[in-house]
TrEMBL record:
Gene3D superfamilies: Tetracycline Repressor, domain 2
Protein name (record): TetR/AcrR family transcriptional regulator
Naturally occurring in which organism (per UniProt): Nocardia lasii
HTH tetR-type domain residues: 4-64
Top-rank taxon, per record: Bacteria
Length: 186
């Protein structure tokens, strides 16, 4: 296995570990164990746990951006239809990969750390700007889209939305309302 392949293996193990236990509670020796490498090798590849967490966070944000770029946008440039396409792609692809929204949320939670916060703010802002760039959404439309996406991300993390959802009345109400609003706009 090449060093690059081993680095990807370590990064995948880090995403899984950080998704499960967050930034503060995750140990680099646990990531190393999952990746089948030594803890010093993890540090040699990424420098520090903080840098590894930032790399994992970047991978998650890059995945969101790839999902958005891969969405089938409205060919006529209809902003509302394009936002719906982004939303469907986000829900069907990104939220289905449960570890990814968890790492995103752990990144947001760890933003009080100046180095992590700097990256979270930059990547979150980049995703917001990408929504406007891809769809032509104005500030209100793009911020509404991001707000709804974060609500779904949080609900997915709580396991009350998504493929493994535990049915609870309040979550069912919210999801039904979101689907009704989307259907009414069509």
């Amino acid at each position: 296995m090449t060093a690059a392949e081993r680095g990807e293996q370590v990064l995948a193990a880090a995403v899984t570990a950080f998704a499960e236990t967050g930034y503060a509670a995750t140990k680099t020796d646990e990531i190393a164990r999952r990746a089948g490498v030594s803890q010093p090798y993890v540090i040699r590849l990424f420098g520090t746990k903080q840098q590894l967490f930032i790399a994992a966070l970047h991978q998650v944000c890059t995945r969101i951006e790839a999902v958005f770029r891969g969405a089938e946008l409205d060919p006529d440039g209809d902003t509302s239809a394009s936002l719906k396409a982004l939303g469907r792609a986000y829900e069907e692809v990104f939220l289905a990969e449960r570890e990814l929204p968890l790492v995103l949320l752990h990144g947001i939670a760890a933003s009080a750390d100046p180095a992590i916060g700097e990256h979270v703010r930059a990547r979150f802002g980049g995703m917001y700007e990408l929504v406007g760039e891809l769809t032509g959404a104005d500030v209100a439309e793009a911020s509404g889209f991001i707000a709804t996406g974060m609500l779904l991300t949080i609900m997915t993390a709580m396991q009350v939305a998504g493929t493994d959802a535990i049915p609870v009345p309040w979550a069912t109400d919210i999801l039904t309302n979101l689907r009704s609003a989307t259907a009414a706009e069509c």
